[in-house]
Amino acid sequence: MRSFSNSERQLARAEQVIPLASQTFSKSRTQYPVGVSPLFLQRGQGSHVWDVDGNEYVDFVSSLASITLGYRDPDVDAAVRAQLDEGVILSLPHPLETEVAERIVEMVPCAEMVRFGKNGSDATAGAIRIARAFTGRDRVAVCGYHGWQDWYIGSTARNRGVPQATRDLTHGFSYNDVASLEALFTQYPDQIAAVIMEPMSVEWPAQGFLESVRELSTRHGAVLVFDETVTGFRYANGGAQALFGVTPDLACFGKGLANGYPLSALAGRRDIMMMMEEVFFSFTFGGEMLSLAAAKAVLDKLRAEPVLETIARRGKGLQERLAALIEGHQLGHIFEMKGHPACPYLAIADAPGAGMFEIRTLLMQELHQQGFLWLGGHNLNYAHDDADIDALLAAYARILPMIGGAVAAGDITERLRCEALVPLFKVR
């Protein structure tokens, strides 16, 4: 039995000085059941991580999909070490800013100009601000998750502290439901500045859906923004827009852009991006050079090696084999494989006598015990190999029938060695 005693001691210590004991909601105790989960990690290498208790895991979270190449990728590490000799940040721009921007322009269909931030929220907030400036409108149509800032988070259940006037300007529409977007344009004629959406999350776009969103946005004079924080430099070298052949006006990137280094980018049409010369979008650390050096190494490696093709191939194998396990154990009423092969998602449904969060908690408990870090999806990176996939599937082959038996017997909660997770924040 794995011990998490050091994790729990560190949690108690951190909670004295850090709300939720974490800088990131999805890394906090709200998402990892206390008592059966690692709560603090010490180091990572390739596709593996080690917690503060010394337990080793194959990591299928990949730092919330920000790790594309693997932890401590040698090419990225070498680029960062070399940049250290020139400095981390200087009093004027460094040529790296131009070099990385040029690579994004070369790779991403919509990109004619680029600006950098540090988090995905910087890029999405910048996109909304320049879309509003460009159109002279205030309202925004949203679909998916777009970060922590007021303009978006006010439209979710996590809206405390956001003024009602701000909340009233953001309107949600449903993925793969063109009519729900059309209804917003009808309700707010000539008022919607931007349509911002994740081009794909766990569901594939229905035939013609993205094309219809593109046409509607153009017809109604709204700026179309693809939030490619997750999909960019993971689904395809040019992002989901390249994969699906639909070009937005603006696109937001982050996560895998720099293999874990803090960097985001807003890219798009020159005429809209030029609003940045009037709209204030400025960061002291926007030109920080270690992250830019990391991004340059990542983008060069994406073009030189079959990084994303390898990730997708391994992910497709995982999807197909796990779906076969689910079918073989007659558990299709509980589990379903969804999403792109780069990040296959295991959807969990309520079952008679067992809620989805109780089932999810038991699955996490058992996967963590068997040496796999898991948070619902399987964010693969280039360092995952066939042995990692085989080992995970062997664990699922042991765990799934146990969960099926627990559901049938109605004793899920009796098998938990912790409190079950509870729903807190749903945006997709």
Quick structural overview:
Helix content is 40%, strand content 13%. The chain is an alpha/beta fold and 428 residues long.
Q: What this model shows, in words?
A:
β2 (48-51) and β3 form a beta hairpin. Helices cover 40% and strands 13% of the residues. It has a 7-stranded mixed sheet, with helices on both faces. The protein has a 4-stranded mixed sheet with strand order 1-2-3-13. Strands 11-12 form a two-stranded antiparallel ribbon. The protein is α/β, with parallel strands linked by helices. It has 2 domains: 5-60 and 307-415, Aspartate Aminotransferase, domain 1, CATH 3.90.1150.10; 74-304, Type I PLP-dependent aspartate aminotransferase-like (Major domain) (Aspartate Aminotransferase, domain 2), CATH 3.40.640.10. It contains 16 helices and 13 strands. α4 (95-107) packs parallel to α12.
